[in-house]
């Protein structure tokens, strides 16, 4: 069993490449900041004091370890007689896995002596997790958010402000996540001496994809131990939804060397690949540069990033992390698309059968499990990352789901 986050393996290489993906595609002014960040990160990853402090925050503040739940009624509703377990990141403080990363990077920023934190957010979940970590650790917090997203996610804007964060409205471009990302990068370039940028997924220039993966690997380290306790063997399949790719890599990474365990990354297919309205970077994108690294992205023929679409704001990102691109190119993981409609059905199925309302992002993973149940050989052991709870989505769900003829 790996005991530290870095013991698992040492990928990427020293320049942040995952066999050609990744890297640091940033302006010269940020290069030194990234190099310093990497060396400081490599130091704390080996530092027992830092790791102990982080583990204490995980257990005493955030609620780790999260349980592994077997879902028997859901199993019975599907063909194949499979055994299905959910890794319950919905039970983590703030309702999703994102806090693992914000706490890790917040603590790292303190080590770096940086008291000002910036972050970008789309749906507001990463903004809320970062505002939470900053309140706890006594750090100043500025969150960039598109005007369009602020309108759609008023409750999360209010939550961030309650915890003392400043929410900066971004009106450029489409006024959504990719524009907020650009603004945050611009701020960082101007203020990198006293500011740390907490990126919210396994994306961005090296060392972010590696760092976020390591902080989220607590999911897979716990899940591996828990499934061995419960079943006495490793799972046959791991399933997780993929936005930038942090809950999925957090689950997959500690199982990387377990060759019998298959990985399924579930992409948001929106209204269908053919419609062009989707967020499936592997299935419907191509290799390009976005957000400081080389990876699969949604782009037009000129290399301009094209807007993503998904019913779930957390999957509505026009790229995917470089380590996922590497997994896709080597076949270590399979990437499968799930539409908005399938996700809505998946959400209702698990809610009714188990009393667990997933986030819309998570519902994509559940829909994939329902879909693959009939195609797999019987009696497989399946472990799903239940990345977040659905409370944040109930308002927008009312537009799509009605009961007994009610609108
Ligand atoms: C943000 C989010 C995701 C997508 O982000 P990843 O980095 O791909 O994990 C998935 N599920 C939930 C609940 C989220 O909030």
Per DSSP E runs of 2 or more residues, the count of β-strands stands at 14
What is the average of the pLDDT values? 94
- For this structure, the quaternary state is single chain
Helix content: 40-55%
The first-level CATH class of the largest domain is given as: Alpha Beta
Which value, in Å, is the CA radius of gyration? Answer: 20 Å
Give the terminus-to-terminus CA distance: 51 Å
CATH architecture of the largest domain: 3-Layer(aba) Sandwich
Number of helices: 16
Protein structure class: alpha/beta
Low-confidence stretches: 1-8
Question: Helix and strand succession?
Answer: EEHHEHEHEHEHHEHEHHEHEHEEHEHHEH
Number of domains: 2
The major beta sheet can be summarized as: 6 strands, mixed
Instruction: Name every ligand kind in the structure.
Output: pyridoxal-5'-phosphate
Strand order of the largest sheet: 3-4-14-9-10-13
CATH fold node name of the largest domain: Rossmann fold
The share of residues in extended strands comes to 15-25%
Categorize the overall geometry: globular
């Amino acid at each position: 069993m790996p005991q530290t986050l870095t013991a698992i393996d040492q990928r990427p290489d020293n320049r942040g490449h995952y066999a050609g993906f990744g890297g640091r595609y940033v302006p010269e002014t940020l290069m030194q900041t990234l190099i310093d960040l990497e060396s400081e990160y490599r130091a704390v990853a080996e530092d027992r004091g830092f790791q102990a402090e982080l583990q204490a925050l995980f257990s005493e503040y955030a609620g780790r370890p999260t349980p592994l739940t077997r879902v028997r009624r859901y199993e019975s509703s599907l063909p194949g007689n499979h055994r299905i377990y959910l890794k319950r990141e919905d039970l983590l403080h703030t309702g999703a896995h994102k806090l693992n990363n914000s706490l890790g990077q917040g603590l790292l920023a303190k080590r770096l002596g940086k008291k000002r934190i910036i972050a970008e957010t789309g749906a507001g979940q990463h903004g809320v997790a970062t505002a939470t970590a900053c309140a706890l650790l006594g750090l100043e917090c500025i969150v960039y958010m598109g005007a369009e997203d602020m309108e759609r996610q008023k409750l999360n804007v209010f939550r961030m402000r309650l915890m003392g964060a400043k929410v900066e409205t971004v009106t450029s471009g489409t006024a959504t996540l990719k524009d907020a990302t650009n603004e945050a990068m611009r701020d960082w370039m101007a203020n990198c001496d006293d500011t740390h940028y907490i990126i919210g997924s396994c994306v961005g220039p090296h060392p972010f994809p590696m760092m976020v993966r390591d902080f989220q690997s607590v999911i897979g380290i716990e899940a591996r131990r828990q499934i061995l306790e419960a079943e006495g063997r490793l799972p046959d399949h791991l399933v997780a939804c993929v936005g930038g790719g942090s809950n999925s890599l957090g689950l997959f990474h500690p199982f990387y060397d377990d060759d019998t365990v298959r990985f399924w990354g579930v992409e948001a297919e929106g209204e269908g690949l053919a419609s062009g309205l989707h967020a499936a970077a592997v299935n419907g994108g191509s290799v390009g540069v976005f957000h400081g690294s080389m990876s699969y992205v949604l782009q037009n023929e000129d290399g301009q990033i094209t807007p993503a679409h998904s019913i779930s704001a957390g999957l509505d990102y026009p790229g995917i992390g470089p380590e996922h691109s590497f997994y896709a190119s080597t076949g270590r993981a399979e990437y499968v698309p799930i539409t908005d409609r399938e996700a809505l059905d998946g959400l209702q199925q698990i809610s009714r059968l188990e009393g667990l309302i997933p986030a819309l992002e998570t519902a994509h993973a559940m829909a994939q499990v329902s879909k693959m149940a009939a195609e797999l050989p019987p009696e497989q052991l399946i472990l799903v990352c239940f990345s977040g709870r659905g409370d944040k989505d109930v308002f927008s769900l009312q537009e799509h789901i009605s009961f007994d003829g009610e609108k």
